[in-house]
Specification:
about 160 residues; single chain
């Protein structure tokens, strides 16, 4: 058998067929229904948590998400944190200072002064440092927090053709 026999029947095309990205949705449940198993671990009801997630996914600020769901903004922030979003009100240095306070190396007043935030913000940051996200709940909202196909920085990037 020669090379010509092996290649018989093979077609060469000048373009590929774009098949897109495969997506699998194995549930018809609403977001609130998917969050129901975590009702005892969330700071608000699954319905309110789903409302917070929907508002956040649409681009609203965390405070506004709380108002939309009719829950305090700090509850919205706690909910988003437990669902895997990065909503810490302090930066990396602030988190290090918080850990020093939690480990007993700093007094609370010194830690608050070093971080430079008020009581409520400090309390939220401490909550975030002491509570890990719920991995299973993060899986339940997978896809709901994605912004879709649009690339928010698409206009700022150049195309390969523009380099030539």
């Amino acid at each position: 058998m020669g090379l010509a026999d092996i290649a018989a029947g093979i077609e060469v095309t000048d373009r590929q067929r774009d098949r897109g990205v495969a997506a699998v949705d194995d549930t018809d449940d609403s977001l609130a229904e998917r969050l129901e198993p975590f009702a005892d671990q969330l700071p608000c009801s699954p319905v309110d948590a789903a409302t917070v997630v929907d508002a956040y996914a649409s681009g609203q600020a965390v405070d506004d998400c709380g108002h939309v769901a009719d829950v305090p903004p700090v509850t919205a922030a706690k909910t988003l944190h437990l669902l895997g979003e990065q909503v810490s009100p302090v930066g990396p240095t602030g988190r290090d200072i918080l850990r020093d306070w939690l480990d007993g190396r700093l007094s609370r007043s010194d830690a608050m002064a070093l971080v430079g935030v008020g009581e409520r913000t400090f309390a939220l940051a401490a909550y975030i440092e002491t509570h890990d996200p719920l991995l299973e709940a993060r899986d339940a909202v997978e896809g709901a927090l994605e912004t879709g196909d649009a690339d928010p920085l698409g206009e700022a990037r150049s195309d390969v053709g523009e380099l030539l």
